[in-house]
Design goal:
This protein has about 350 residues and is mainly alpha-helical. It has helices at about 5-20, 20-40, 40-50, 60-75, 80-95, 100-110, 115-130, 135-145, 150-165, 175-185, 185-200, 205-220, 225-245, 250-255, 260, 295-325, 330-350; strands spanning about 290, 295. The protein starts with a helix and ends in a 13-residue tail after the last helix.
C-alpha cells in the first residue's frame, strides 16, 4: 500500500523530535497537518492534533488536543480517543490542574496497553505525587515494567527524584543519564541531564557540575517550553557558581530571574528543585495512524534507522575527539556535537566540515 504523504511527514517529525531539532519539528508538524487536511486523512489529522504537545507549550497545546478528542469521537477513530485523553491529562498536569490531569489519565488507562500505558502511568504518578506519594511510587514501578527504552531513563529518574524528595537524599543518576543520551528524545534527555548535574552539585562535586553545565549551555536549544527551561538551567548554574565561591554574571542572573517573574501556569514545574519528567504520548493504543497503516511499522523503521546512526555515531565520536579534544572531557559536550553531526547528515547530506569543528557552532 502506497504511503500517504502526511504519514511520511509524521515519521520525519518524530525523527526530528528524537534528535532535538525543535524548528524542524514545528515545520514537519505544519506540513504534515496541511497534507492530512488536503488528503482528508482524518486519522492522521487527529493524531497530529494530539501531538501538538510535542510542538506548543501547554496553554497553546490544550485547544489542539481538545480538538483532537472531538475529531476522534466525531469520526469514530476509537484508537485515538484514549491516547488523546492521556495527552489532555499531560497538558493539565503541566498547567498545574492536577485533578483534571488525574481524571483524564485514569480514564485513558482503561484502554491503553504496553508502552502507551506506561506513559500514562508515568504522568499519572506525577499528578498524584503531591497527595499520594505511595501510589505515585506504585504507578512508576508499573510504568517502568511496561515502557520502551526511549522512555525508561526518564521514568527511573522520576522514581529516584521522588525518593530523593522523600528522604532528602542525593540520587546517583550516572547510569540513567548515559542511557538517556543513547535512547531518549532530546527534551527528555535534557531533563535527565539536569537532574544528573543537580545530583553532582548535591554530592559536593560542584566543579564537575560546572564542567557539565558549561558543556550543556554551549549547545542548549529552546524546546516547546522556551525560556522557562533555559531559566531553570540558569538557576542551577548560579547555584553551582555560588558553591564554588564565584560571582554570578549579570546576564545569567537575568535569565534565572525569568522563573521569579513568570506568570505562566506551567512555571511550577520549573521551580522544583529536581526536574520532573512528564512524557508526551506520541503513539496510539493500537498504534494505527490510518487504515492499513500500523504505527508499529514506523517505530520499527525508526529503530532500524537508530541502529544505523548509532554505528555512525561511534565513528563520529572518535573523529570529534581527535579534531576537538577539549570536548572529550565532557560527555555531554561530545554528545551534543555527535547529535549535531548526525543531524547535519540527515538534513544536508554531510556530517561536518572535515577541516575542523566549532563547539559553539
Amino acid at each position: 500500500m502506497e504511503e500517504a504523504r502526511s504519514e511520511g511527514m509524521i515519521r520525519r517529525m518524530l525523527s526530528d523530535y528524537q534528535l532535538g531539532d525543535p524548528q524542524s519539528v514545528v515545520l514537519r508538524f505544519v506540513e504534515a497537518l496541511e497534507s492530512a487536511v488536503n488528503e482528508k486523512d482524518e486519522r492522521s489529522k487527529a493524531y497530529l492534533l494530539r501531538c501538538a504537545v510535542l510542538v506548543f507549550p501547554p496553554a497553546k497545546a490544550l485547544p489542539w488536543v481538545s480538538n483532537a478528542l472531538s475529531l476522534a469521537k466525531t469520526h469514530q477513530i476509537h484508537e485515538e480517543e484514549a491516547p488523546t485523553l492521556a495527552n489532555l491529562g499531560l497538558v493539565h498536569l503541566e498547567l498545574g490542574a492536577l485533578e483534571e490531569a488525574q481524571a483524564h489519565l485514569e480514564e485513558s488507562l482503561m484502554h491503553l496497553e504496553g508502552g502507551a500505558r506506561a506513559v500514562a502511568l508515568n504522568n499519572l504518578a506525577l499528578a498524584v505525587a503531591s497527595t499520594d506519594r505511595e501510589r505515585a511510587f506504585d504507578l512508576l514501578a508499573e510504568a517502568v515494567g511496561l515502557t520502551e527504552d526511549r522512555h525508561l531513563a526518564a521514568m527511573v529518574c522520576n522514581l529516584l527524584v521522588l525518593e530523593a524528595e522523600e528522604t532528602r537524599g542525593c540520587p546517583d543518576l550516572t547510569h540513567e543519564v548515559l542511557f538517556a543520551a543513547e535512547n531518549c528524545a532530546a527534551p527528555l534527555f535534557d531533563l535527565v541531564l539536569f537532574n544528573h548535574v543537580r545530583s553532582l552539585l548535591e554530592a559536593g562535586n560542584a566543579a564537575q557540575a560546572l564542567q557539565e553545565v558549561k558543556a550543556y549551555r554551549s549547545k542548549a536549544r529552546e524546546f516547546r517550553d522556551g525560556s522557562l527551561a533555559m531559566a531553570r538551567w540558569a538557576c542551577l548554574h548560579g547555584e553551582i557558581l555560588t558553591a564554588l565561591g564565584r560571582r554570578i554574571p549579570r546576564k545569567l542572573a537575568e535569565q534565572a530571574a525569568v522563573l521569579d517573574h513568570s506568570a505562566e501556569a506551567e512555571v511550577w514545574l520549573y521551580r522544583t528543585r529536581w526536574a520532573l519528567c512528564p512524557i508526551p504520548l506520541d503513539q496510539s493504543a493500537k498504534t494505527v495512524l490510518a487504515e492499513g497503516v500500523d504505527l508499529e511499522e514506523i517505530w520499527d523503521m525508526l529503530a532500524s534507522f537508530k541502529r544505523h546512526w548509532q554505528e555512525e555515531a561511534r565513528e563520529i565520536r572518535e573523529l570529534l575527539t581527535m579534531v576537538c579534544p577539549s570536548v572529550s572531557s565532557s560527555r555531554w559536550g561530545l554528545q551534543w556535537l555527535v547529535a549535531e553531526a548526525l543531524s547535519c547528515e540527515l538534513r544536508e547530506g554531510f556530517w561536518f566540515r572535515r577541516g575542523g569543528v566549532d563547539p559553539n557552532g
